[in-house]
């Protein structure tokens, strides 16, 4: 199982480490279109979605990544990565990859100084323990399409959701030692390979 982590900006090394701990055979940093070759799944990290989107266009990654998503390659977007996947962004008439049937609102939990951690119930994870989630200028999902499953909410706001092979989380799962969400993504990759 070969997983890529989009490595244009953000917590790339942390995602690579979490994926390795979760049991991925091979994890590679993706900077160029050629790095997408042979990937079974792709993680889009947090950072700043406008910047990452611009860099994806500059490095000619937007089109091939969109194609991969349309062809069923599993993708996991966290924070800015979720915004990149979304079909609709609140207050904006354009999107980035536009492959995830959700409407997202950016920076919807306050400013940088208001970043926070909380314990969530996330559907589908191993065990009963709550999942510690780190929110940093996080987006939330305002609306989901028919085929989207809500996996967790925080104060009635959707913060984790899945649509078949696409997974999105508002928070930063790579910043804690709990790799259950990365394991969940790897199980989606295994499912897709069958
Ligand atoms: N606020 C950022 C954005 O709109 C996302 C923040 C993050 O990824 N930690 O892109």
From TrEMBL:
One of its GO terms (molecular function) is glutaminase activity. GO terms for cellular component: cytosol; glutaminase complex. Keywords: Glutamine amidotransferase, Hydrolase, Lyase, Pyridoxal phosphate, Transferase. GO terms for biological process: L-glutamine catabolic process; pyridoxal phosphate biosynthetic process; pyridoxine metabolic process. Pathway: Cofactor biosynthesis; pyridoxal 5'-phosphate biosynthesis. L-glutamine binds at residues 47-49, 106, 136-137. InterPro entries: Class_I_gatase-like, PdxT/SNO, PdxT/SNO_CS. The active site is at residues 79, 172, 174. It catalyses: aldehydo-D-ribose 5-phosphate + D-glyceraldehyde 3-phosphate + L-glutamine = pyridoxal 5'-phosphate + L-glutamate + phosphate + 3 H2O + H(+); L-glutamine + H2O = L-glutamate + NH4(+). Pfam families: SNO. Its EC number is 4.3.3.6, 3.5.1.2. The keyword Transmembrane does not apply. The keyword Isomerase does not apply. Catalyzes the hydrolysis of glutamine to glutamate and ammonia as part of the biosynthesis of pyridoxal 5'-phosphate. The resulting ammonia molecule is channeled to the active site of PdxS. In the presence of PdxS, forms a dodecamer of heterodimers. Only shows activity in the heterodimer. NCBIfam families: PLP_synth_Pdx2. Belongs to the glutaminase PdxT/SNO family. This is Pyridoxal 5'-phosphate synthase subunit PdxT. It comes from Tumebacillus flagellatus. The gene is pdxT.
């Amino acid at each position: 199982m070969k997983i890529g982590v989009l490595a244009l900006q953000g917590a790339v090394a942390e995602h690579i480490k979490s994926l390795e701990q979760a049991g991925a055979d091979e994890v590679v940093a993706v900077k160029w279109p050629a790095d997408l070759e042979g990937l079974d799944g792709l993680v889009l990290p947090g950072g700043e979605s406008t910047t990452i989107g611009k860099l994806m266009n500059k490095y000619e990654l937007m089109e091939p990544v969109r194609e991969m998503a349309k062809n069923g390659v599993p993708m996991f977007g966290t924070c800015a990565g979720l915004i990149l996947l979304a079909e609709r962004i609140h207050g904006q008439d354009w999107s980035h990859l536009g492959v995830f049937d959700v409407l997202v609102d950016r920076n919807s939990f306050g400013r940088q100084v208001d970043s926070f951690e909380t314990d969530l119930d996330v559907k589908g994870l191993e065990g009963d323990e709550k999942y510690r989630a780190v929110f940093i200028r996080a987006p939330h999902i305002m609306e989901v399409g028919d085929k989207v499953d809500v996996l967790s909410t925080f104060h009635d706001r959707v913060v984790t959701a899945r649509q078949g092979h696409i997974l999105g989380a508002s928070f930063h799962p790579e910043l804690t030692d709990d790799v259950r969400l990365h394991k969940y993504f790897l199980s989606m990759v295994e499912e897709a390979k069958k």
